[in-house]
Amino acid sequence: MKKKEINGLGELENKVMETVWELGKASVRDVLNNIKSQKQLAYTTIMTVMSRLYDKNILKREFKNDAYIYAPVQDQKTFSASISKKIINNLIAKFGEDVAVAGFIDVMEVNNNKKSVELRKKLKSIIK
């Protein structure tokens, strides 16, 4: 089984998405040429991955000049926020709200970043 990244996409899917986000719009050939310098891949492999990302509604496409041109449905920041919400909802469903939020607060405290104080207050007010 292929390893899935935290966002639910596989390693190659992530590379394809990073390339499409970088280019804005891309054909299979554009993505292949961009990734090929990093890894030896077949055209049909990239075509299959991009088609599957289209089926998952992560990419949209239009047919131009005898080829599909793909574009992301969401920008990278929006996509990441959407995946984060899904992960959090899954944690809440699996472990309950109190445990999931407490775990998140613990991680924020360990990381002690600048926004952690604000976020902890928001999270604590939610679980009251």
Q: How would you characterize this protein structure?
A:
With 128 residues, the chain is mainly alpha-helical. It is 63% helix and 9% strand. The protein is built from six helices and two strands, in the order αααββααα. It has a two-stranded antiparallel ribbon with strand order 1-2.
How do the helices and strands line up, and which of them pair or pack?
Elements: H1 11-23, H2 28-36, H3 43-55, E1 59-64, E2 67-72, H4 76-95, H5 97-111, H6 116-126
Antiparallel strand pairs: 1-2
Helix pairs in contact: 2-3, 4-5, 5-6
Brief overview:
The chain is mainly alpha-helical.
What is the CATH architecture term of the largest domain?
A: Orthogonal Bundle
Overall strand count: 2
Q: What structural category arises from helix and sheet content?
A: mainly alpha
- In spatial order, strands of the major sheet run 1-2
What is the level 1 CATH name of the largest domain?
A: Mainly Alpha
Query: How many structural domains does the protein architecture include?
Result: 2
The number of helical elements comes to 6
The major pleated sheet works out as: 2 strands, antiparallel
Q: How large, in whole angstroms, is the Cα Rg?
A: 19 Å
Question: Share of helix among residues?
Answer: 55-70%
